[in-house]
Design brief:
- With 226 residues, the chain is an alpha/beta fold.
- 47% of the residues lie in helices and 10% in strands.
- It contains eleven helices and five strands.
- It is globular, with a radius of gyration of 20 Å.
- The two termini are 39 Å apart.
C-alpha cells in the first residue's frame, strides 16, 4: 500500500530519549545501572502497575512519585522521584530536525500524528500545546485510556488520520511498541540514530528529510578526487 501518513513517537523520537537521561541520573546518584529502568519496567509490566495507571490517566504524577519513593526506600536508596522527573523534563528537549521532517512531510500532502505514552499534567503544558500544532493528530495514552503497545491506541491514531494501518509508517525507539504496529500492517522504523531513521523514512515515502552536506570545494587551489 502507498504510505499516506507518518506517526511519530514523542519521547526518544521527536524529543531526546529519556532512557539516556536515566543512565546519567543513575550514575550521578550512585544508583545501580538500570535502576530506574527496572523500576519503571516492573510497574509497567503489570496491567494494574503504577506506571501503566499513570500513562492511562488513572493516577496523577504525584501519586506515582509517592509509590516510587516508597519502593526506592525499601530498596535502601534515598532519591526523589519528583526531582528526577523534573530533571528529565528539562533533558528531553525537542529535536529540531524531527520537527523539520514533520513540516516537509505535511508540505508534501501526507498526514502526520504524534502517538505518545504520557501522563496528565497539572496546569498548562505549553510545550505540549506547541507540539500539538505541528501534527494533524496528537494521540496521548493518558487521554485515551490505552497505552502502547495496546493495539487499540494505534487503531485510534489511524482513525484520527483517516488511513488504514497499512497506509501508515510508525517511528518509535522501543521495540515492543514497533512490534504491535508491524502486526497491524504499518511500516515500522526503529529510532536509534535520528538522522539514519529519517533517511530510511525518506526513502520509503520519497521525500528528502535529511539535508545532504555541501559538496567539498574543488575549485582553484583544491584537488578534485573522483
Amino acid at each position: 500500500m502507498e504510505i499516506k501518513a507518518v506517526i511519530f513517537d514523542v519521547g526518544g523520537v521527536i524529543q531526546e530519549s529519556p532512557l539516556a537521561f536515566l543512565k546519567e541520573f543513575e550514575a550521578r546518584n550512585d544508583l545501580p545501572d538500570g535502576f530506574f529502568a527496572g523500576l519503571v519496567g516492573n510497574y509497567a509490566a503489570r496491567p494494574d502497575g503504577a506506571w501503566q495507571r499513570l500513562e492511562r490517566g488513572e493516577i496523577l504524577l504525584d501519586e506515582l512519585c509517592r509509590i516510587f519513593d516508597s519502593e526506592i526506600a525499601n530498596l535502601g536508596y534515598s532519591v526523589s522521584t519528583a526531582a528526577m522527573m523534573l530533571e528529565m523534563a528539562d533533558y528531553v528537549v525537542i529535536r529540531p530536525r524531527m520537527l523539520e521532517a514533520v513540516r516537509r512531510i505535511r508540505a508534501h500532502g501526507l498526514r502526520t500524528a504524534a502517538l505518545t505514552n504520557n501522563w496528565l499534567m497539572e496546569g498548562k503544558d505549553l510545550e505540549r500545546e506547541a507540539l500539538m500544532d505541528r501534527f494533524d493528530a496528537f494521540i496521548e495514552s493518558c487521554r485515551t485510556g490505552f497505552r502502547k503497545p495496546d493495539p487499540r491506541i494505534y487503531e485510534l491514531t489511524c482513525e484520527a488520520l483517516e488511513v488504514l494501518p497499512g497506509e501508515a509508517a510508525f517511528l518509535d525507539d522501543i521495540g515492543a511498541n514497533l512490534k504491535t504496529a508491524a502486526r497491524l500492517g504499518m511500516l515500522t522504523i526503529k529510532v536509534e540514530d535520528p538522522d539514519e531513521a529519517l533517511r530510511e523514512l525518506g526513502e520509503a515515502i520519497g521525500i528528502e528529510l535529511v539535508d545532504r552536506p555541501p559538496a567539498a570545494d574543488s575549485g582553484p587551489g583544491k584537488e578534485a578526487h573522483e
